[in-house]
Amino acid sequence: MSAVESKLAELGLTLPEVVPPLAAYQPAVQSGVYVYTSGQLPMVDGKLAATGKVGAEVTPEAAKELAATCALNALAAVKSIAGDLDRVARVVKVVGFVASAPDFTAQPAVVNGASELLGAVLGDKGVHARSAVGVAVLPLDSPVEVEIQVELTEA
Predict the structure, then answer these.
(1) Which residues make Cβ contacts (< 8 Å) with residue 124, sequence separation at least 6?
(2) Which residues pair with 145 in a beta bridge?
(3) How far apart are alpha carbons 82 and 84 in whole angstroms?
(4) At a CB cut-off of 8 Å and minimum separation 6, what does 145 contact?
(5) I want to staple 97 with a disulfide (CB 3.0 to 4.6 A). Which of 8, 34, 127, 145 is the partner?
(6) pLDDT tens digits for 6-15?
């Protein structure tokens, strides 16, 4: 078991299977030393964990947990390319999309769920640049979607 997966276990988390694509794309691709994930939804055991708009049907606290699930799914996609999460040199960028009720403005607090999970799992390697964007709707009526870019060490 890799050091990163040991840390996940210490946190009571398990790396899930890669979520199969919902359309014509790959869960992650590599270009040089970088791995880019597609947007990851909060899928758990093949099902969307929640639906609706944050600030309406979904509380900000629940959405923050869903963002962490998205980040965990993104790590699974990275592992599918890298082979071992210990190859992650650093998380470069996180982009979080939050399906928001019209008056909801706390998108950064929601996306903190993903950022905090990456920091807890990867330590200093999990510190990243980030965007948190409010949107009208996401695929399958998901409340959140997260994509990440990571830099790998040489194999």
Answers:
(1) 90
(2) 97
(3) 5
(4) 39, 40, 41, 70, 96, 97, 138, 139
(5) 145
(6) 999 999 999 9
CA distances from 153 to 28, 78, 87, 127 (A): 17, 13, 5, 16
pLDDT tens, residue by residue, 51-105: 999 999 999 999 999 999 999 999 999 999 999 999 999 999 999 999 999 999 9
d(CA 89, CA 151): 5
Q: Residues 123, 11: contact at Cβ < 8 Å?
A: no
Query: How far apart are the C-alpha atoms of 112 and 109, rounded to whole Å?
Result: 5
Encoding tokens for residue 152? 């790998």
Residue 73 CA to residue 69 CA, distance in Å, equals: 6
Amino acid at the residue 38: S
Total-model pTM: 0.97
